[in-house]
Write a structure and sequence with these properties.
Elements: E1 10-14, H1 17-20, H2 43-47, H3 70-84, E2 88-92, H4 95-98, H5 109-124, E3 128-134, H6 140-146, H7 153-168, E4 175-179, H8 189-193, H9 204-228, E5 233-239, E6 243-245, H10 250-273, H11 278-286, H12 297-303, E7 308-312, E8 317-319, H13 325-329, H14 353-367, E9 371-375, H15 393-411, E10 416-422, E11 442-444, E12 456-458, H16 460-470
Parallel strand pairs: 1-2, 1-10, 2-3, 3-4, 4-5, 5-7, 6-8, 7-9, 9-10
Antiparallel strand pairs: 11-12
Helix pairs in contact: 3-5, 7-9, 9-12, 14-15
Bound molecules: 6-O-phosphono-beta-D-glucopyranose.
6-O-phosphono-beta-D-glucopyranose binds near residues 375 and 437.
Length: about 475
């Protein structure tokens, strides 16, 4: 017996503008953070180095500049999504296409017109756009001249940006999310919060102040969205990595709970419940964090709670209070220690489908709002056979097990809106800037050294996913 996914379940795929569009200087687009990120596994640490100047170095290779050229090939790509039967397509709008510097008063018409064309093309096939407003692509001007989200003025710029896109696309886009993986700023502030933490600097105060500004901005966006687009659904978007205690030692259990709350639940508690939770107030006190909160902010945060929770799920995290350096090194990208029960991907991300069911249940138990898995997938090396076929059974296995976990959680009573697997078409990896870390059902002939024809082809998983969608999750 197959699983029963709800009628109207939003099956599809997910992407981000900076990782696929290319055309980085076309249509009057301004520079964003991703445009100054060189390719290679060290890219995130380079960006956070003291003295990094957010400029393009002619001696380096920048894969996001060309992406997979979706900017020019969106029609072909959307036709392929339609062939798979997508009900939804998650994408982001590049802030710098709409406001090239970020602080202008008027939006850039060429940028607005580009997304009109993309949304029209999606609607031609009955595909619902699910739009992330800000996905790791903050305008460089706002980073360099304003200090990113730690500057309150950025709230005004963001408000201007969302007002422009809500007004323009009010008849085309119903599903929105404010900040991609908002809690990622706790790990790498530069991508989500738009500033680097320098070693000598106290990280706590600026980080949480920047979060306060994002929460205010998110609440404003939710309120504006509901006013401008009646019936719209505006979600938050968090990384969720369920946190397990390494063993049953209560010290470790408490430590895991603390880590889970600080990383997984802090942002959700504010954006979904509309208030700062008690555990974070204690944390603020213990770390001497004094937020500058303007009159009306807390009321606004209370009023602007989100309609649903979008989240990414790639891995779980296993925690232990006292870890050796060696144990730390063996953990996942987001921390913790190695889980002896799990295998990892070629990039060391531990594969844990049961963790998705755990996440869905934890989130639903806590918040009781609809959930949307807006990212999940396996980054893997693919091999093109002589006849051109790509037999990515490992990807099918990964996705099948995660879809089963969603089916189980629906049986558990979780209200799940949809599933958009990450990188439905191969694109540039966010953390490593590689093309070779592939997630797609659609292969793109493009390689880490920049070579390749950009030609698209269907992998084995393409046909498999098409059948999953056509059977509404019954045929796995
Ligand atoms: C999420 C991001 O962290 O994971 C995406 O929202 C990213 O932008 C995805 O691409 C997968 O990570 P990576 O590093 O493999 O591209």
């Amino acid at each position: 017996m197959g699983y029963k996914f709800p009628k109207g379940f939003l099956w599809g795929g997910a992407t981000a503008a900076n990782q696929m569009e290319g055309g980085f200087h076309e249509g009057n687009k301004g520079l964003n953070i991703a445009d100054v990120l060189p390719g290679g596994k060290q890219r995130l640490s380079i960006l956070a180095e003291p003295g990094f100047n957010f400029e393009i170095d002619p001696n380096k290779y920048y894969p996001n500049h060309e992406g997979i050229d979706f900017y020019h090939r969106y029609k072909e790509d959307i036709a392929l999504f339609a062939e798979m039967g997508f009900k939804a397509f998650r994408m982001s709008i590049a802030w710098t296409r709409i406001f090239p510097r970020g602080d202008e008063l008027e939006p850039n018409e060429e940028g607005l017109a580009f997304y009109d064309r993309v949304f029209d093309e999606l609607h031609k096939y009955g595909i619902e756009p699910v739009v992330t407003i800000s996905h790791y692509e903050m305008p460089v001007t706002l980073v360099k001249e304003y200090g990113g989200w730690r500057n309150r003025e950025v709230v005004t710029f963001f408000e201007r940006y969302v007002t422009a896109i809500f007004n323009r696309y009010k008849n085309k886009v119903k599903y929105w999310m404010t900040f991609n993986e908002i809690n990622s700023g706790l790990m790498m502030p530069i991508m989500g919060l738009g500033f680097a933490i320098q070693k000598e600097e106290d990280k706590y105060q600026p980080t949480y102040q920047a979060y306060h500004h994002q929460f205010v901005a998110s609440a404003k966006a939710v309120k504006l969205g509901h006013e401008i687009i009646p019936g719209s659904q505006i979600g938050c978007m968090i990384i969720f990595a369920p946190t397990y205690s390494f063993d049953c030692n209560p010290e470790n259990v408490m430590y895991a709970l603390d880590q889970e709350r600080l990383f997984n639940f802090f942002c959700g508690d504010v954006q979904v419940r509309g208030e700062y939770p008690a555990f974070i107030k204690r944390y603020f006190k213990e770390h001497n964090i004094n937020l500058e909160i303007q009159p009306g902010d807390l009321e606004l945060i209370k009023e602007g709670t989100v309609d649903y929770i979008g989240f990414s799920y790639y891995m779980s995290r296993t925690e232990k209070k006292n870890k050796t350096q060696e144990e730390i090194g063996q953990g996942n990208m987001i921390g913790g220690v190695k889980n002896p029960f799990l295998k990892a991907s070629d990039w060391g991300w531990e594969i844990d489908p049961e963790g998705l069911r755990i996440s869905l249940n934890k989130l639903y138990d806590r918040y009781r709002v609809p959930l949307f898995v807006v990212e999940n997938g396996l980054g893997a090396y693919d091999k093109v056979e002589e006849d051109g076929s790509i037999n990515d059974d490992y990807r099918i296995d990964y996705l099948r097990e995660h879809i089963k976990a969603m089916g189980e959680s629906i049986e558990d009573g979780v209200d799940l809106m949809g599933y958009t697997s990450w990188g439905c078409i191969d694109l540039v990896s966010a953390s490593s800037g590689e093309y070779s870390k592939r997630y797609g059902f659609i292969y793109v002939d493009k390689h880490d050294d920049g070579s390749g024809t950009l030609e698209r082809s269907r992998k084995k998983s393409f046909f498999w996913y098409k059948d999953v969608i056509a059977s509404n999750g019954e045929n796995l």
